[in-house]
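Hi everyone,

Forwarding the result from last night's run.
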Amino acid sequence: VTSKIGKDAILLGQSSISVKAIGTQWTDVTVKADGGGFVDFADAEANSNINHEVKTSIDGTLIAGETILVESKSSVRGEVDATADARGLGANADANEISDEEGQTEKGLRIGLSGDLALTQTTIENDGYLRSPLVEVGAEARIRADVDSDSFAGALGADSDAVARAYVDDLAKVILKGDSLIEGDRVELKSIHDNIRLDVRADAKADAL
């Protein structure tokens, strides 16, 4: 999501001017594995990757009589649920405990795999000029992650494993380029992470002799 005021563009507001980029993402992944019988295996693998880029860029002129607001806002919610249920002789139940070929377990919820893949950014470019009694420039990111893993194995020699993981690599930035100019009685610059909530739960149960 991108909002951009280009070079040589001029916006005049008698009262206020707002330039915003707003991005919202939501993912919900549910995986269930059931089994029963002689030597039973149940593997549940739930995985979700969320990347986003929300940007606002000002390279022109904004003049307002009261307020100027320039901001980027992102809201991300991810839910991952893995349930494995195995019942039988030698039963084995794994919830998100499945490794890749290199032996690295990467299952669960990942927000921003690396670098700037989860980015909320507001930039006042070199030719950007903002003038108003109140000028606000901001970048705000909100994140909610819910990860649940449940496994149950019942019978002689049962084995039960549950792993829940949430990875977050998120960046909120406000950038003023070297030749940009902001004039006002009050100028506020802010980059924040707000309402960050990570709920991760793993529950493994076995009923065996």
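The longest strand covers residues 16-36.

Cheers,
N.
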